[in-house]
Amino acid sequence: MIGTRAGKLFMIGSICLGFGLTIERFQSLLGKGFLCLAIVFLSYTVLKNVWFELVYHHDLQVDLLMILSAAGAISIEYFSEAAILLFIFSGSEVLEDYVYRKSLKTMESLMTQIPKQASLVREDGVTVVTAIEQIEVGNRLVVKKGEQIALDGIAQQKMLIDESLLTGESRPVAKEINDVVFAGTLNIGETSTYLVRKKSSESVFSHIVELVEQASRSQSKRDKFLHQLQKSYVIGVLGVVILFIIGLIQFQQVSFAQAFYRGMILLTVASPCALIASITPAMLSAMSFGAKNGILIKNGDALEKMSQLSILFSDKTGTLTEGQFRVSDYYLENSRLLPYIVYMEQQSSHPLAQSIVSHFKGQSTLSPSQKFSVQEIAGYGIQMGDISIGNKRFVEDFLDSQDYLTKESQGTLLFVAQKEEVVGYIELVDTVRKEAKEMIQTLRHEGVEVVMLTGDRKVVASKVAEELQIKTFHAECLPEDKVSYMKQQKTGDNIVGMIGDGINDAPILANADISIAMGSGTDIAMDASDVIVTQNNLQKIGLLFKLSKYYSKITRFNILFSVGVILLLILLNLLGYLDLTQGVFFHETSTILVILNGLRLLSFE
Description:
Shape: elongated
Number of helices: 23
Structural class: alpha+beta
Number of strands: 22
Helix content: 40-55%
Strand order of the largest sheet: 10-22-21-20-11-18-19
Largest sheet: 7 strands, mixed
Distance between the termini: 27 Å
Radius of gyration: 32 Å
Strand content: 15-25%
């Protein structure tokens, strides 16, 4: 706290104030000299900030009221009162800066914990330490026991990983061959190798760090409103103070010096410092707690809206279910299509595609001359030349001489077509997430309705909805259908949320009042969301809701408390029961209390 420049100036000013108050009793002139030095040191940082905002941004800060109050006290030779005012005010500013830095500590630590170098295995087998910026996709890296993984990659051996820095989950995660490993996580097993799948600037960790930096600079709507109100408020208070001084002189026959002194008290206690500090420290504390527990909150509005949530729409695949499909059955009239199917699915990031690739990983691949451009059609499937793979909607207009489209299944069916004729199918099955039911029960208990949206068939969606006790669901949805269902509910005071993880979910995430993306989802879904659950644990959604409720409770109390203190101090001054030192003390104490109250969110349970 004292290590900052403002802290050092405060310390010097405090020493000068102590000397001034002590010596003034015996040597008036020397004492006033020390008090003037104290005023200079204690006011420097605040005055500099006020001047910068005034000159460069043409903005009147509430701190200007405190500076004018001190200047007014000096003008009527109340040097000790002016110095004490600045001492208490500057001390609270230094403390406020300290707690602000404390609330950002978790985020700042997150930003610094990523390796700058990695052990690269060259083609000749020699390992060299290389800067991560020089490492390319496809390079092979070695990570020793106790070392951090430097880049997102694919495990080449079984690995035991601590992902707590990224997800907030302390339990080690066992990685199998070909599983994805993430930059910033810790290898706690034996020395292993992995293949790089993303450059340093594209890794999940780097993406999250970038979003954390943005979040730390964000403001909620209420916070923005309070800061925008400052200019009008300052001008209004200055006008009221002038009228107050004139009124005391005219109607109560108070001397100018006495009226001016009480006017400076009013100028001090009317400053809304506590009101301005009611939200930001609490918001940053909640964000910090979230980041520590695998919940990345991008902005303060997300917290406010989450606390008012009425309906939460949820995707099914990869969100309510594991998204780790396995191929249970398949049939192709022409087995030579299989390499083409595998190649096409390799170009997609959809969980179904990844499962198909994994199931047929031993299948021979296409030669370069056989490869074509693959087009992914959101909500339907993928296409390459005259070969199509997708859901029933994608191929329902094609010739189906063998009645593949009538096949019954409790899983997910993808149909294979060639030259506009259905020639086979692939059946996949998924499992419901263990924590999904608990999340739904938690939200329902809090009065939030959960609605499932899925592009899957009705029979599959019905089975999942029944297992999770979801009353309302919509099946066979295209992306535009999901948006339409959401807009139907965005009426009146309803605050509507969405949780998803795929390309198909990006449009509805963008349209939701509060959007939540699973950390294993696509970059598009993560970019479109307000909150990212870096660990695929739906229990975090319940935790986020409770955190937002607590945040809302704390900020409402802070606002009411700070306004109440301002009104009480103004009343005491009007009645003549308050001097300048007392006014500053109670005013700044209220500011410190609302900041400390906001910091309670750092240890939310």
